[in-house]
Amino acid sequence: MSLKLINCTKKFKNNLILDDVTFEIPKGIFQLKGRNGAGKSTFLKIISGLDKKYSGEIISNGASILYLNVDPIGIHPFTIRENLNILWETFNIKPTKDQINKIEFFFDGKLDMSYSRSSTGMKAKIGLSLIFVKNWDFILIDEAMSTLDSESIEVLSKTLVNLSEKNKTTIIYVSHSLINERLKDYSNGIYIGGGKIWCQNERN
């Protein structure tokens, strides 16, 4: 599956995010980089389909796209497990036993914890759990890993690398505090700035 922007222009207030950009997103894992206010979050929302206020065309060819940001998506007063079941039912997902085991490990066995008493990192894992239970063509992560502990980030990074290599999933993430060497080693850069988008090979 491919995702391509054709002659796309996007303005936010007085800031020109995209200036007649034509750009095809390549396969792989990419860290989206740019100065504050360059439009990283806006760009992810545009290619995910959440922001439609732009000119030009985006061709996705029916690709399945997962977009995750820092906003929690859990519901009070349910447990983590109940929230996961609601989320999977919303996406019509029926996890396999192996996938459920991975989720149990990711949540450190705390699925029956009350959502209201869960840490910020635990709440963030609810949305991130979708990475483990469905084969997505594109996974877009906007700072959603920022509240996780290092062990959880390692589990997630290993999964993302495997999805990229085995399933050819394209992953684009924004992170200002990434400390995981595995993800860094497998990542190239997509840069945004001055209304332009470009790639840079940064793998060793």
What can be said about the biggest beta sheet? Answer: 6 strands, mixed
In whole angstroms, the N-to-C terminal distance is: 26 Å
Give the radius of gyration. 17 Å
Tell me the series of helices and strands, N- to C-terminal: EEEHEEHHHHEHEHEE
* Share of β-strand residues: 25-35%
Compute the number of helices.
Answer: 7
pLDDT averaged over residues: 94
Helices and strands, with pairings:
Layout: E1 4-12, E2 15-24, E3 29-33, H1 40-48, E4 55-59, E5 65-68, H2 80-90, H3 97-106, H4 120-128, H5 130-133, E6 138-142, H6 150-166, E7 170-174, H7 181-185, E8 187-193, E9 196-200
Please outline what is shown here:
With about 200 residues, the protein is α/β, with parallel strands linked by helices. The chain has 7 helices and 9 strands.
Describe the protein's architecture and organization.
This protein has seven helices and nine strands, in the order βββαββααααβαβαββ. Strands 5-6-7-3-8-9 form a six-stranded mixed beta sheet, with helices on both faces. The protein has a three-stranded antiparallel beta sheet with strand order 2-1-4, covered by helices on one side. The chain is globular and about 50 Å long. The chain has helices at residues 40-48, 80-90, 97-106, 120-128, 130-133, 150-166, 181-185, and strands at residues 4-12, 15-24, 29-33, 55-59, 65-68, 138-142, 170-174, 187-193, 196-200. The chain is of the alpha/beta class and 204 residues long. The mean pLDDT is 94.
How would you describe this structure in keywords?
7 helices; 32% helix; three-stranded antiparallel β-sheet; 204 residues; six-stranded mixed β-sheet; alpha/beta
